[in-house]
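Why do we care about 3D structure at all? Because function follows from shape, and shape follows, mostly, from sequence. That is the central idea of this module. The next example makes it concrete: a single protein chain, its amino acid sequence, and then its structure expressed as tokens.
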Amino acid sequence: MTSSLSPVSPIHKAEKRQAAIWQSILEEASAASDAQPVMASFYHSNVLNHKSFRDAISFYLASRLANSAVPAMTLHSVFDEAFNDQPDIVDQMLGDLLAHYTRDPACEQYIIPLLYFKGFHAIQSYRIAHWLWVQGRELLALYIQHRVAELFDVDIHPAARLGSGIMLDHATGLVIGETVVVEDDVSILHAVTLGGSGSSRCKRHPTIRRGVLLSAGSKLLGNIEVGEGAKVGAGSIVLEDVPAHTTVAGVPAKQIGRVHKNMPSLEMDHTIDDE
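And the structure:
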């Protein structure tokens, strides 16, 4: 006898996850408001006055990115346009929020990256800029890139292609170039450069596969590929492909070990593994 129950659709699962996380965010913000009355208006304005995560992130980022020439209401409408046209942007943002919550021991609540982590703010702003770029609205996309660089000291070209579940830890000094590809579940620390080699319009920046950990200050240059689950040591300069599940370090970077966990980005373990 076959079951009459139909499988739960991916869209329904995403909506349930969004609702559950948003409920947790509301509870955290309410408790924080009660504990710190001097911050009550901040938590109400940025979280408690909104109906959903989508509304809250749109309001918060538009307020941060606005200036006298491009007001917050204008940017808020752009965010809503993007969310209406491509609803999975919101789920990608939540994937990034979960990445911080599950990987960063300094992050004990969802509201911490939402309100305080500039790496999280930078990549969510990029997501709107990327949508604009794909829509052919390059100048507005570049405005958002420029404001993000000014505000957060993070420079992500809007044409770059970034997956979900990405954690930009601290993020200061991060540079991601135009033809970069970063897959899902990658962790990137501060002062990392994913830079280009050459002046042609072809693919000239790195491709970072799923589960990679890029340690602080590493520089990856040119059309190279860092294989799935690899680890790049702090301060390394990477000029050649990195095989999957290996550790590279040095100037220039050389293979110095194997990665014994499938996804080093999830454990945030920067130790050097032996062969």
